[in-house]
Inverse folding.
């Protein structure tokens, strides 16, 4: 086992949080192994949404918690888990979020990493539903092939600090220029962590690619990243070069010129009843053009504004709303009014 470096300190430089979360489930991150998942499974660590708290909810094993929580150690050692990064590349920093774990968070952590070839990663037994269980001898045997206890340290053993109960982030800067594919999160000796964010930039192994086939050079998996933007209130521009959205919906409304100006000043906070559904939540497929009919077979209302929502995030290259000008549409008999059609192309999904 490699020597454990001296205790680390929290970083004050939070610029790396503008980068992508390379471990997130939404980009293909996956938990390969965890020593224990008794109170809550390690898969919660890489959820894309923020942690939540349900005051009166319990499981058969205890209080329901939105994170990874292990039982108290009755034997020597500490708990740890191994995560396969969804985007492989250079890690700039990590966020260890212990929100809502005010009485049971892990006191200390360390993070190790490795750059592994896919063929060298053993086939792990399916984890399934892990709440209330510990790793099996079969799982320990499989993960031992990775020798993860000897991986390089990105974050040495470091103390976690609890801030606000509902927002306790611990940020650590990573000083490494190497490419990484897997990380090991160690908690000392046990306890809970809500989320683990691994921020960085993708870096592709170009030696394994076909030089005759074009690729999307701006894809986040290959190192694409936004280095400047004018406004990111509704989402960081990096989302445009990530995966395609899972689904989308379109709503419409009728506004006067003055109402439009008011909405711009109020960041489009419009009463819900003003919006009329034009397209329900609809599943999308990556790198495909979709032609979709509106929710109503015969659209009777004139629409001046449309709101296009992608769920949960991602990239869309074009959106077309095909219909008729109001001066023509309103003159048609009801039975002849056309169906509004939507044409859009979801973003390219890299082979993560």
């Amino acid at each position: 086992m490699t020597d454990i470096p001296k205790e680390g300190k929290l970083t004050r430089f939070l610029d790396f949080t503008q980068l992508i979360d390379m471990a997130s489930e939404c980009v293909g991150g996956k938990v390969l192994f965890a020593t224990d998942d008794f109170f809550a499974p390690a898969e919660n660590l890489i959820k894309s949404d923020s942690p939540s708290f349900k005051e009166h909810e319990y499981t058969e094993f205890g209080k329901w918690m939105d994170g990874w929580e292990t039982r108290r150690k009755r034997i020597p050692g500490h708990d740890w888990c191994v995560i396969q990064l969804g985007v492989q590349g250079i890690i700039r920093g990590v966020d260890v979020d212990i929100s809502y774990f005010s009485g049971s968070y892990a006191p200390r952590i360390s993070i190790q990493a490795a750059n592994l070839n896919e063929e060298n990663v053993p086939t792990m037994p399916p984890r399934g539903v892990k709440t209330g269980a510990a790793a099996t001898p079969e799982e320990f045997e499989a993960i031992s092939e990775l020798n993860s206890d000897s991986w390089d340290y990105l974050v040495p053993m470091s103390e976690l600090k609890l801030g606000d109960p509902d927002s306790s982030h611990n940020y650590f800067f990573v000083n490494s220029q190497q490419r990484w594919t897997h990380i090991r999160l160690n908690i000392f000796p046990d306890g809970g962590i809500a989320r683990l964010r691994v921020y960085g930039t993708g870096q592709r192994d170009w030696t394994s690619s076909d030089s005759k086939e074009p690729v999307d050079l701006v894809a986040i998996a290959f190192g694409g990243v936004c280095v400047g933007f004018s406004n990111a209130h509704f989402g960081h521009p990096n989302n445009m070069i990530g995966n395609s959205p899972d689904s989308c919906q379109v709503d419409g409304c009728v506004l006067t010129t003055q109402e439009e100006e008011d909405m711009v000043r109020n960041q489009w906070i419009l009463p819900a009843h003003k919006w009329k559904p034009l397209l329900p939540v609809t599943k999308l497929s990556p790198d495909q053009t979709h032609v979709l009919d509106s929710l109503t077979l015969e659209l009777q209302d004139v629409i001046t504004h449309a709101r296009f929502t992608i769920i949960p995030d991602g990239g869309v290259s074009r959106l077309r709303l095909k219909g008729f000008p109001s001066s023509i549409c309103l003159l048609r008999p009801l039975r002849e009014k056309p169906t509004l059609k939507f044409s859009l192309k979801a973003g390219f999904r890299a082979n993560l």
In short: The first strand starts at residue 20 and ends at 21. Residues 292 and 342 are 5 Å apart (CA to CA). DSSP finds three helices and 18 strands in the chain.
